[in-house]
Structure formats: C-alpha cells, structure tokens
Predict the structure.
Amino acid sequence: MMGAEQPEDKGYTTVRMTVGAHEAVVKEAKRFKLKNIDYMDAAIRYFALRGLNPVEVEAREGTLIMKQVQRLGDRLFAYMQEEEQGVLVPMLEELIRVRLTTERILRLEEVLLSTLPEEEMKRKKDKVEQLRLQNETAIQEQIREVLGAGRSMDSVKRGTKKQEK
C-alpha cells in the first residue's frame, strides 16, 4: 500500500458485517484497485491511528477540520511575524533617521550661534539647550513606545503559543 505503514501480518480472522457494508467495501476497494482485505485494514488503521470514532461522522469531520484550521493558523502566524519584521524594522530606521536629523540640525544651530555676538549667542544658546532637552525627552519617549509595543506584541504571541502547546 502507498503512504501507510503495513502492520506485522499475524494471520487472518473472519469479521461479520452487514451486506451493505460489504458492498461498500467491495465497491471502494475496486475503485482504488485494492484487495478487499487491504482496503479494510487501511480503513480500520485510519480510524485507530487518529483516535476517531467512525460512527460519529460529525465529530470525525470536526476533528479533521480543527486540525486543518490549526495548521492554517500556524501558517498565518508565521506570515504575520514576517510582515511584522517588515513593518517594525522600517519604523526603527525612520526613528533613527529622525534622531540623527535632529542632532545635525542642533549642531548646525550651534555653529550658527557661534557667529553671533556673545550676548545674543547666550540668549539663543539657552533656547537651543531647552529645545535639545525637549527633543531628547520626546525621542526617548518615542523609542520606549515603539520598543514597548514590539515587546508587548511579542509577549502576547509567546503566551498564545504556550497556551496552544
């Protein structure tokens, strides 16, 4: 048989079944070009290996559907992690770019201030220092928010994965 392990052959036994079940076995075995015994062995192993009750059709289908949904969920989760990387990395790059731009602008302002008379330079330098402190505080807060959001998403996902196991 293809795709299924054959159990050790321990001989044969006789099984009673309804005429309708026997007709179904003969028909399906013929359709798959199998011997009746091979078809029955495979069908019984299918239910036994999966722990499924062949009488409970809805429960069996529900179990199979849930497994498919779980596999799909795992694939979706992996895709979302990839997408997240594609979003968070550019956000971090932009944050760094803004930080560096701000630093360069402040340095340029300091250079320009150095060309002014001392009294005017002192007055503007105090304003620049105040702006620098405000910018530094705002930048640090933005970094905490971005990194905090990334950590909280990661911990939520880890918690979800741990619950699934």
Q: What stands out?
A: Helices lie at 19-31, 36-50, 57-113, 118-164. The mean pLDDT is 78. The radius of gyration is 35 Å. The CA atoms of residues 12 and 50 lie 23 Å apart.
